[in-house]
Design a protein that fits this description.
The complex is a heterodimer of chains A (about 200) and B (about 450). With about 200 residues, chain A is α/β, with parallel strands linked by helices. Chain A is built from eight helices and nine strands. Among the domains of chain B are: about 140 residues, Aconitase, domain 3, CATH 3.30.499.10; about 170 residues, 2-Layer Sandwich (Aconitase, domain 3). The chains are: A alpha/beta (about 200), B alpha/beta (about 450).
Chain lengths: ~200, ~450
């Protein structure tokens, strides 16, 4: 995964509360079991007046001419709530979004962002609003958002930061602790045998 | 130091810390479905990784399967069949137990996992499905994850996690007649917002929770994701153990002293505490486009975001009861179990749905629920009333591009999400209990089930 360091982009405001993953990528836009081919379906219900024919809705913010090529989306409270579908994050990444700054995130969505190199930044709602259409620089190593001569520090969990900044693969990293996992499992198998069903006969 | 139930399960599964201070938590069970699980299995195979312990990974076809009788792999969702055939091939290749389309154990993942005793008190269980929190009703730590995390859990037997905070939601007192676990969940979310549980593992406690049967406990925990909680759990009790004992993957008896330790200790401290008097809860119905936009059925629509009013077509100050509906849906991982169907059928018995209700579906949560309901004759009650009686699956809880409601429909639904477009483009969804859906289908408008229940009892 590409490491996340510094991102500079206009802040495209989609500042509504409770934007759900069904809206970010509707189920009907998830047409294959792969992780690609999703960008055209991103925000389909809001982005198109006719999603089937892909006729754009000029009033939707991502269709605004100043939003073309944006890397930064601004959101309200509880961004990414609802379905766990990682397709929402895959669609955003494929579209080109590398960072979302929102007042808060739904937890599964936030975790999915971190696993896919999409930086979720939480800042107070009034600060998020102040970033609308500004040229914003998000500096992950410094944990700062800079725009219009102002600097806003943001908090991020150390593990999330390490994963994003290092572009790390979580599975590879965890498998370096395979011995600890094996030892734990062996002890647990004795302590809680009911957790370990006999392998299904095939 | 006294510990919460969450603390105990967390500590018991703590394998190691990561370099950046997260916890490596052992995962006892992974459950997949064809909609997001196929993606995880495909990606795992493409990267040449093996499933750590296939005997503890399960998969089911539930999300996009056709629910019309006589079904096979073909589904009304365009391209949907590929999800089914790819999941079947991938689970076979990985040695994972699959409950296939027409298997007698097929059903919605969160309905069949308890039915088969796959979820157990004290286990960690994850699935790439947000409603996995449903299974916390058994005192398990069960939560929804993305596909990448599902891959991680399968490849390593663990997840890298930041420890959530703990919250206890105590429902004191006793529910009034006609008020259900669904109403408790909606009342909680309406009072404390759809993001109110973020960052927390929630324990539901109190007399009103204790009095819920296992299926109602599942309904309550199911909606924790609509509260943005990591998950919810309820301490197992006599009822829990009796319900699970002897099921296929469960112990025959829960007599090991270990099981009795699975509860929050007296004096355990939670990071946050909420209390709700259950007696004050009325049947709830959503008025808007988030579960937090829910009101008592005898209340007026409050002032909310203009966008929600515009989408749903209801103005502030308007009474929610009496709003005409076009469709009704009974089913889902929230309210698709036998007790849900029984309670709806009790109100529908001997009655007909209003002619203006053009589509009315009952979709049992599992094949086992369907068989049990048929053995009691519930299917006849539903079909006599004008409902279609379907095969089990997630069905129209969400719109996948295949079967849908008529354009412009206003539905009343026992499901969990009233998001814009969730049940189809432009479809306006009101979520409520099975009782409220049944009463509304009969009235042809959103209706208080208590009046009908009184009539049925008289």
């Amino acid at each position: 995964m590409t490491p996340v360091t510094t991102i500079t982009s206009p802040g495209v405001p989609l500042i509504r509360d409770n934007i759900d993953t069904d809206t970010i990528i509707p189920s009907r836009e998830m047409r294959s079991t792969g992780r690609t081919g999703l960008a055209a379906g991103l925000f389909a219900p809001w982005r198109y007046t006719d999603a089937d024919r892909r006729i754009g809705d000029a009033t939707f913010v991502l269709n605004h001419r100043d939003a073309i090529g944006t890397r930064l989306l601004l959101g309200g409270r509880n961004f990414g709530c609802g379905s766990s579908r990682e397709h929402a994050v895959w669609a955003l990444r494929e579209y080109g979004i590398e960072c979302i700054i929102a007042a808060s995130f739904a937890p599964i969505f936030e975790g999915n962002c971190i696993r896919n190199g999409l930086l979720p930044v939480t800042l107070p709602l009034d600060v998020v609003r102040s970033l609308a259409w500004a040229m914003v620089t998000i500096d992950l190593p410094a944990q700062e958002v800079r725009a219009s001569g102002r600097t806003h520090r943001f908090a991020i969990d150390a593990e999330a930061k390490a994963m994003l900044a290092g572009g790390l693969d979580a599975i590879d990293l965890t498998l370096t602790q395979a011995d600890a996992i094996a030892a734990w499992t062996a002890a647990d198998r004795a302590a809680r045998p009911w957790v370990y069903p006999e392998p299904a006969s095939s | 130091m006294p510990q919460t139930l969450f603390d105990k399960i967390w500590a018991a599964h703590h394998v190691a810390d990561t370099a950046a201070g997260a916890a490596l938590i052992a995962i006892d069970r992974v459950f997949l479905h064809e909609r997001t699980g196929a993606a995880a299995l495909r990606s795992l195979a493409e990267r040449g990784r093996r499933v750590h312990d296939p005997a503890r990974v399960f998969a089911v076809m539930d999300h996009i399967v056709d629910t019309r009788p006589g079904r096979g792999d073909s589904t009304l969702m365009p391209g949907g069949e590929a999800f089914i055939t790819e999941t079947r091939a991938a689970t076979r290749a990985a040695g994972i137990t699959l409950f296939d389309v027409n298997d007698r154990d097929q059903g919605i993942v969160h309905v069949i996992s308890p039915e088969l005793g796959i979820v157990l008190p004290g286990v960690t269980l994850v699935a790439p499905d947000s409603h996995t929190c449903t299974q916390g009703a058994f005192g398990a730590l069960a939560w929804g994850i993305g596909s990448s995390e599902a891959e991680h859990a399968m490849a390593t037997g663990t997840l890298r996690l930041k420890r959530p905070q703990t919250m206890r939601v105590t429902f004191t007192g006793r529910l009034a007649p006609g008020v259900t676990a669904k109403d408790m969940a909606l009342a909680l979310i309406a009072a404390h917002d759809a993001g109110g549980g973020a960052g927390h593992a929630v324990e539901f406690a109190g007399s009103a929770v204790r009095e819920l049967d296992m299926e109602a406990r599942m309904t309550l925990c199911n909606m924790a994701t609509e509260f943005s909680a990591m998950t919810a759990l309820i301490a197992p009790d006599v009822q829990t153990f009796a319900w699970l004992a002897g099921r296929r993957y469960a112990p025959a008896a829960f007599d090991d002293p270990y099981w009795a330790t699975l509860r929050s200790d007296e004096g355990a401290v939670f990071d946050r505490e909420l209390a709700i008097d259950a007696a004050t809860i009325a049947p709830m119905v959503s008025w808007g486009t988030s579960p937090e936009q829910s009101v008592a059925i005898d209340a007026a629509v409050p002032q909310g975001p203009a966008r929600a009013h515009d989408y749903i077509g209801l103005a502030p100050g308007q009474r929610i009861a009496g709003t005409p509906i076009d469709a009704a849906f009974i089913g889902s991982c929230t309210n698709g179990r036998l007790s849900d169907l029984r309670r709806a059928a009790a109100l529908l018995k001997g009655r007909r749905i209003a002619p203006s209700v053009r589509k009315a579906l009952v979709v049992p949560g599992s094949a086992a629920v369907r068989r049990a309901a048929e053995a009691e004759g519930l299917d006849r009650i539903f079909t006599d009333a004008g409902f279609e009686w379907r095969l089990s699956g997630c069905s129209l809880c969400f719109y996948a591009g295949g079967e849908g409601f008529a354009p412009g429909s206003r539905t009343v639904s026992t499901t969990n999400r009233n998001f814009e477009g969730r049940q189809g483009p432009g479809i306006r969804t009101h979520i409520a209990s099975p009782e409220t859906v049944a009463a509304s289908a009969i009235a042809g408008a959103i209706a208080d089930p208590r009046a009908l229940a009184a009539e049925a009892a008289a």
